[in-house]
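Task: sequence design from structure.
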């Protein structure tokens, strides 16, 4: 039996449980931006797997650091104990975050980073004796798959079976270019002194379809929410660590968030790790002799030393001058390719923020998230040896920073071939 068949007999995969889903593709090795498949083929990873592998796959520098940590201290309880990798990582993260961020709380992944931010926000209001129960989020938002994260997710189709169990959230349309004034007007009525938190994916909504909007629009919404004391949560799980051309999307803003959620690229894609950061004011609301004011949240693997070591290694690579040059190089290539895309009648709404380039595929003159063009595009590109997993009818590039110009060109050419096919 092939690996694929053995898999199909015993495993339940995320998001693919449809009878028409293709057999899973066995991957045996990864190096740089390439995944090597069991059947000998190579696959260019143009989405950094699930948006995590900043430095490509199996980077030797990260591998060495992880191996060394594994032999020194692989894990320890993090309640009442600490260790060098956790402290060092916090010390390195805080200076590169918005200046008001003062504390690092560790968890396991993006969803838990969001859960922790929401729990901190709700309990902040509880602890200071002014409970607030309302949350505002964006339509089409995606913040993860745990219950709190689902509650603030803006695509109800994905969470319908769980709807009765999700807390109440009010949604604002995304202030995409042209809709800013309308959204701001609606926000004037939605934001009140009862809103505990406003959670956003700053500047780029990822899973919702790579919807992009301008810093000015978010600044205005943040400023408005803040007049009501509402806590601002920036979910930078996807946008963090250089994706948008700055280290964090929040650095494009003049209004600073109160809480931030980080994960995905933090370890360069080697290990699962989540981080929630907050201001001194939030942390201080939990400092008390009253035990009931503590944050009741802790995972078995909180601040796992191997994950922290991987993150430290990934940061060494990321903060290197050469990496910043790589990011600029990818941005420039993307911008040039966007011009080429503009010539295609089956492409619409081309948008770019840093190393993220996205566009809609148009079928029958229409652009619709839910249509079968997704599967056609996905399969076509896989056959060309390019991994780009479309979001509905949205195709996007989110390459590892080590992707060479030649590799980028291979992916661009595959997309152009797809467009030619769709134009016929
Ligand atoms: N927030 C955002 C913005 C995300 O893109 C994701 C993952 N796609 C998550 C949260 C959830 O992260 P994880 O899958 O690691 O739980």
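Answer:
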């Amino acid at each position: 039996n092939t690996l694929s068949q053995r898999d199909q007999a015993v495993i339940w995969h995320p998001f693919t449980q449809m009878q028409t889903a293709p057999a899973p593709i066995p991957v045996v090795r990864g190096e740089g931006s390439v995944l090597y498949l069991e059947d000998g083929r190579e696959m260019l990873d143009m989405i950094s797997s699930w948006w995590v592998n900043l430095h490509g796959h199996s980077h030797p520098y990260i591998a060495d650091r992880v191996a060394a940590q594994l032999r020194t201290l692989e894990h320890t309880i993090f309640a009442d104990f600490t260790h060098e990798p956790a402290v060092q990582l916090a010390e390195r993260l805080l200076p590169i975050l918005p200046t008001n961020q003062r504390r690092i709380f560790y968890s396991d992944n993006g969803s838990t980073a969001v859960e922790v931010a929401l729990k901190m926000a709700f309990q902040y209001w509880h602890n200071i004796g002014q409970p607030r129960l309302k949350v505002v989020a964006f339509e089409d938002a995606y913040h993860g798959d745990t219950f709190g994260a689902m509650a603030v997710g803006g695509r109800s189709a994905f969470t319908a079976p769980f709807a009765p169990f999700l807390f109440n959230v009010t949604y604002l349309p995304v202030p995409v270019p042209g809709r800013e004034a309308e959204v701001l007007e609606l926000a004037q009525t939605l934001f009140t002194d009862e809103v505990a938190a406003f959670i956003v994916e700053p500047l780029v909504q990822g899973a919702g379809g790579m919807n992009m909007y301008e810093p000015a629009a978010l600044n205005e919404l943040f400023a408005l929410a803040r007049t009501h004391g509402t806590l601002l949560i920036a979910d930078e799980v996807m946008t963090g660590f250089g994706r948008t051309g700055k280290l964090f999307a929040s650095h494009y803003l003049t209004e600073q968030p109160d809480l931030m959620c980080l994960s995905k690229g933090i370890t360069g894609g080697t290990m699962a790790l989540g981080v929630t950061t907050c201001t001194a004011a939030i942390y201080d609301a939990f400092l008390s002799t009253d035990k009931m004011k503590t944050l009741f949240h802790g995972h078995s693997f909180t601040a796992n030393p191997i994950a922290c070591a991987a993150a430290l290694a990934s940061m060494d690579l990321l903060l290197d001058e050469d990496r910043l040059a790589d990011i600029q190089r990818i941005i420039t290539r993307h911008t040039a390719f966007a011009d080429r895309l503009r010539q295609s009648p089956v492409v619409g709404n081309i948008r770019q923020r840093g190393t993220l380039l996205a566009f809609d595929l148009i079928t029958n003159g229409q652009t619709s998230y839910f249509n079968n063009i997704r599967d056609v595009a996905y399969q076509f590109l896989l056959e060309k040896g390019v991994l780009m997993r479309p979001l509905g009818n949205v195709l996007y590039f989110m390459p590892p920073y080590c992707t060479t110009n030649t590799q980028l060109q291979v992916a661009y050419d595959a997309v152009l071939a797809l467009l030619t096919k769709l134009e016929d």
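The domain at 3-58+322-423 is CATH 3.90.1150.10 (Aspartate Aminotransferase, domain 1).
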